[in-house]
Amino acid sequence: MLSLVNNSNTNLNIRPEHHGLYKLSLTRNADIAVASKPVFGASITFHTDLLTYDSFIVKPDNLLGWVDLGGLVYFTICSGQHPLGVDNVNTTTTLPSQFISAENGMLRFTSTLRIYLLAKTPRDIQEHGLCYFTPV
User: Fold this and answer.
1) In a domain, 1, yes or no
2) Engineered SS bond to 88: which of 14, 42, 78, 82, CB 3.0-4.6 Å?
3) Range(s) of the domain holding residue 85
């Protein structure tokens, strides 16, 4: 049985989420490695499990990797509304410590986040950044 659809009550008012979208990038002087254990000589070692999926949710107890004595100095976080539109991105920088902790050299996010990976190899991570993320 077919029914008639009333399209007169359509809402076309789409708005971005207020908590925004953030991009996690690394400084040019960071030496990046991908392994299941900390790599000697690397500034940052990302755990291999972190780079398995393109999109996922991380919790504060998930291990992302390890950092050397430089800690969070290698990370930059910029906020923006749209990852592809350069004109639409707000380049306001956020302190990495708002989202990342490096206690005892172990790298973890401080809250539950939805992650969208941008790159999976050290060279691509250096060039494009690691990911976009948004608080859940």
Assistant:
1) no
2) 82
3) 21-135
